[in-house]
């Protein structure tokens, strides 16, 4: 085990001043570190404080833009924010915390180099103050075939992979002579009616319908889109009335919305639903909720029954000192609610605001000042249902159609971090208004060596679209989440 000094990288030198370790580079991790840079500017300059951020990727993902990235309205690079540029006074470690021993104030971290380094093992990072913000992962259920054939929708890789996959399915459908292969290729099943699932489906359907005009043998009506939701409503974030509107809008586009229905199985590329319906398909997208990141279980910190970190309204981990948390990973009491024991919901609205209070409280604690409580009343939500279509319920005002879609864009443009990103996204939207939509699939980017391997006479041939066996007849090439070959 290598001992790491907190702001000098993995070296055994003694760290200066108060060592703050931030685990996670998402909403909470990035915004907390950003605010800490500002609040503790002087201390950072003279070495009385050091901040280290551990994150698996060198960027923060602005998740609400993922559906638009999947639709091709925003390029993937503009959905992410480079941590090194934004957090220029922090020490960034690209890696994953594997366990945390808070009693000993150490985190065990594997970095990109860990596997390459022989005999040294993971890095051990010592700290004084811990900010634990690893967010959440997809909450899956033991549905047969799910791990093999489905894909989630939480990362930019998944969003772009799904876009490529959908267009590739249209290419398969256009070129196959087998009607069963064609039918399965043009059937897309989405599970989960929250904003991730609904926005992803709506944006992709919109994109695919537009793309169909460039295929001589595919009509938009040939594409089958199915939304499966276990409860009796979708988009609970925008309220019942707007949720009903969203259902009508989707059904009006021929999208098959099935409420009070579950996915029972997707083995052998057949989606079997609890209402008895069976859909041969090559695409199952799972967005049925989230659960706290697994690292939380590898700490000595207190967790709730649902596995979130038990926190106080001051964003401290309950019952321990010098540990802080916020966002999807933290069970923060909602002090604005009359309901007893109500927790803040896992969403960006809370995550961003909690990060601000969290950073201010850490700065207050370092400077010996009093801490304040986090209090924010949920103001509602906006959701996009494709280009020029949307639904919103914000501050009691209900909007639908174009005004809601416009509000969705304006809101997220104001929220996406850095002026640089705002300008780039706005430029993309403006250009998209002037030119035709991009309809290309760059799935081959996922296999950059294939062409050369073929030329060099070794390895597999370039992975092209493989129709595989007839859907339902046995395991074929995996769905968008699985690795081919
Ligand atoms: C498609 C989609 C659309 C959404 N749209 C909206 C919306 O419109 N409005 C809204 O309010 N919310 C929305 N959300 C939810 C919102 O994005 C989350 O609530 C928010 O990102 C939570 O912030 P967080 O910092 O807790 O987690 P995240 O932003 O997920 O960040 C967690 C970070 O920690 C990292 N991490 C995980 N494990 C480790 C580890 N062991 N070591 C180091 N780092 C680790 C992760 O890689 C990630 O970078 C959406 C989510 C999705 C997926």
Main CATH class of the largest domain: Alpha Beta
Q: How many separate domains make up the residues? A: 2
Q: What is the C-alpha radius of gyration, as a whole number of Å?
A: 24 Å
Strand-residue proportion: 15-25%
Mean pLDDT: 88
Put simply, the count of helices is 13
Task: Supply the CATH architecture of the largest domain.
Answer: 3-Layer(bba) Sandwich
Bound molecules: flavin-adenine dinucleotide
Helix content: 25-40%
Molecular shape: globular
CATH topology of the largest domain: FAD/NAD(P)-binding domain
Low-confidence stretches: 1-15, 462-479, 481-485
| Biggest sheet, spatial arrangement of strands | 1-8-7-6-3-2-9-21
Largest sheet at a glance?
8 strands, mixed
Question: What is the number of strand segments?
Answer: 25
């Amino acid at each position: 085990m290598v001992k790491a000094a907190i702001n000098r990288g993995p070296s055994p030198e003694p760290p200066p001043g108060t060592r703050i370790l931030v685990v996670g580079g998402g909403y909470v991790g990035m915004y907390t570190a950003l605010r800490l840079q500002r609040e503790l500017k002087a201390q950072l300059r003279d070495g009385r404080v050091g901040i280290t951020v551990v994150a698996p990727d060198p960027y923060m993902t602005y998740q609400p833009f993922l559906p638009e990235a999947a639709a091709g309205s925003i390029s993937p690079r503009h959905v992410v924010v480079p941590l090194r540029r934004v957090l220029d006074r922090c020490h960034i470690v690209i890696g994953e915390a594997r366990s945390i021993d808070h009693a000993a104030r150490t985190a065990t971290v594997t970095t990109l180099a860990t596997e390459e380094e022989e005999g040294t093992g993971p890095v051990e990072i010592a700290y004084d103050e811990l900010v634990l913000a690893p967010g959440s992962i997809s909450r899956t259920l033991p549905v047969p075939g799910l791990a093999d054939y489905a894909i989630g929708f939480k990362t930019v890789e998944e969003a772009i992979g799904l876009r490529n996959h959908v267009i590739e399915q249209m290419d398969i459908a256009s070129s196959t002579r087998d009607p069963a292969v064609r039918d399965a290729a043009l059937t897309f099943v989405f599970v989960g009616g929250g904003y991730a699932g609904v926005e992803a489906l709506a944006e992709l359907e919109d994109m695919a319908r537009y793309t169909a005009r460039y295929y001589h043998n595919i009509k938009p009506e040939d594409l089958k889109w199915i939304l499966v939701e276990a409860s009796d409503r979708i988009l609970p974030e925008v309220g019942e009335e707007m949720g009903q509107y969203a259902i009508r809008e989707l059904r009006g586009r021929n999208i098959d919305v099935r409420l009070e229905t579950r996915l029972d199985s997707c083995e052998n590329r057949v989606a079997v639903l609890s209402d008895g319906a069976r859909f041969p398909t090559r695409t199952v997208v799972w967005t049925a909720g989230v659960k706290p990141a697994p690292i939380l279980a590898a700490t000595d910190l207190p967790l709730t029954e649902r596995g979130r970190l038990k926190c106080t309204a001051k964003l401290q981990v309950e019952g321990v000192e010098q540990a802080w948390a916020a966002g999807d990973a933290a069970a923060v009491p909602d002090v604005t609610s009359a309901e007893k024991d109500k927790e803040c919901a896992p969403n960006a609205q809370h995550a961003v605001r909690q990060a601000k209070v969290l950073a201010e409280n850490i700065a207050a604690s370092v400077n010996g000042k009093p801490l304040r409580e986090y209090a924010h009343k949920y103001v509602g939500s906006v959701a996009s249902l494709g280009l020029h279509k949307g639904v919103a319920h914000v501050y009691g005002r209900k909007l639908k159609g174009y005004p809601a879609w416009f509000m969705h864009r304006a809101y997220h443009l104001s929220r996406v971090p850095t002026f640089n990103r705002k300008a780039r996204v706005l430029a993309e939207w403006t250009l998209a208004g002037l030119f035709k939509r991009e309809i290309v699939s760059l799935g081959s980017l996922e296999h950059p060596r294939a062409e050369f391997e073929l030329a060099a006479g070794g390895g597999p041939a370039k992975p092209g679209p493989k129709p595989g066996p007839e859907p339902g007849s046995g395991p074929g090439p995996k769905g968008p989440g699985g690795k081919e070959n």
